[in-house]
User: What shape does this take?
Amino acid sequence: MTTNYRLAPIAPADARRLRDEHGAATGAVYIADAKPGYPCRQCLRDAEIGERLVLVAYDPFASDSPYRSRSPIFLHESDCGTPHDLTTVPAQLSVRQLSVRAFDEQAMMIDADVIEGSELDDTLRRFLTDPATTELHVHNASRGCWATTVTRTA
Assistant: This one.
């Protein structure tokens, strides 16, 4: 049986709020000077060289948990939309070393692994076969930046 999933990047409304509250006001504006290097967490694309991004802090948890914490993330300085396909691993994630963390319905971590991005699809499906897993958080392994949340689909 195949376990399917859906990626949940930062919602456009949340991204807009973070840009307004923390983006340019904090001075944390970057111009992409390498690719890959500046992964936007709304559109799940690496910025093109010369594109402007803001660095903000984002909390991906919907409920309270000892694991709850804000994470640094890049967003394009202007709204960039969401990916058209949220059911497959985007190129942005397939080229990085990642940390995948599985959480249960109480937002308690029940499993985790550090993997190469090329292994992400298999890892997501493996973790989601555990019925106790309600969501997965994917982070860049080296800097710890949240990349996306993943949930099981029917």
